[in-house]
Amino acid sequence: MQNWKVFVHISELFILVPSLLGLKGNLDMCLASRLSTQANLGNMSGRSEIFHMILGNIALVQVQATVASFIVSMFAIAVGAIINGTIIFDHVMLLTASAMFTATSSCFVLDFVLVAVILVSSRTTMNPDNLATPLAASIGDVVSISLLAGIATLLFENIDTHLWVTFVMVAVYVFLLPFWMLLVYRNKYTRSVLSTGWVPVLSALFISGMGGLVLDKAVGIFNGFVVFQPIINGIGGNLVSVQASKISTMLHQSSIIGIIPPHAKIFELPWRALFHGVPYAKTARILIAMSIPGQVLFIFVADYIHMSRSTIGFPFVLSYLFVSTVQIMLLLYIAHVIIHMMWKWKIDPDNSAIPYLTALGDLFGSSFLMLAFMFLRSIGHPYGEKASETVDGLGLLTTTSDPATIVGGMLSDLIHDGSGI
């Protein structure tokens, strides 16, 4: 979708993408973690209790999605104004309306999917911790990016004649906000989260916004970057969310909030936390092992879809696997530290841990992937680009997307003859 007209004319949409995709980590995956913990504790038995629990959580997610998406759009607009030196009012309204529509609609759809998955798994032998959070992450990516691209394109095509539609959309979401807040406030399961759950959500949005800046910068430099960025970010976020949900459930089952159980410490050695030494290390090493074949499979598929043929070689695979494995190991270790720290400080990790972890996954994934692309270019194996040539002391880099890109200088004319340039 990067070449769609709306993305070309309104580049701030690239800044929105990681933040809006991160919202599913901030909101829906927290919802999945909360309900999974309640299911494992046996609190989802009576129909009345289940109904009130689900209603309060859906309303809470709508409140957070409305406010967070508005803040995300303002961040993208401000950054775009700094970079471009100007503000276009039509684009401001399009970004705001698109962000709010995408966040609220995707969360609403995902909430019902997650509730169904958790209810079914709680009545079978399946553990909802293993199903709900990665399902929220993966489906959330597809739903969010599809809704964002679709509504942004629709509004952009009619922006000259129907700008008023963006005003109506924003007004409707603002009008519904007090209604959702009232439902949350009257619900005993979500009342406390309404006042205490904003710091992790807004902090995570800021971190994801930094990842958006990396994406916006890398799109214009590296061919194919946007093809692999959702893969490294998505897999990292999926895997760490499973670990975070399982650690949180185990803490709820084995200890009282504020007291670290004897089998773990806040700061463990990385080897003990990731491979052998604490009860969660088994899950961590399984997740790390799962990521390697998964990453290899997806990068080959993505490359074939993008280039219509297989183009990646051993240097790319090795570089990509190195940065993706470092990202996942770093996220899993941070998950161990941050969840136990929150538990010690009497902060429920079901409400606060996953937003930070998925946002860090976006930032680490985009940054590490950019480093991998820089390394590949430095050793003469850039993805989707031909080898660098030298013409009169200037490096000439021919890519698949541009006829010629001159590195190190500018040429006003390119004279072609039978032997080359």
UniProtKB/TrEMBL annotation:
It is found in: Membrane. Residues 1-22 form the signal peptide. InterPro entries: SLC41_membr_dom, SLC41_membr_dom_sf, SLC41A1-3. The chain crosses the membrane at residues 54-83, 95-120, 132-156, 162-185, 197-215, 317-341, 353-376. GO terms for molecular function: monoatomic cation transmembrane transporter activity. SUPFAM superfamilies: MgtE membrane domain-like. Pfam families: MgtE. It is a multi-pass membrane protein. The keyword Transport applies. GO terms for cellular component: plasma membrane. Residues 17-151, 229-371 form the SLC41A/MgtE integral membrane domain. It comes from the Eukaryota. Keywords: Ion transport, Magnesium, Membrane, Signal, Transmembrane, Transmembrane helix, Transport. Belongs to the SLC41A transporter family. This is SLC41A/MgtE integral membrane domain-containing protein. It comes from Anopheles dirus.
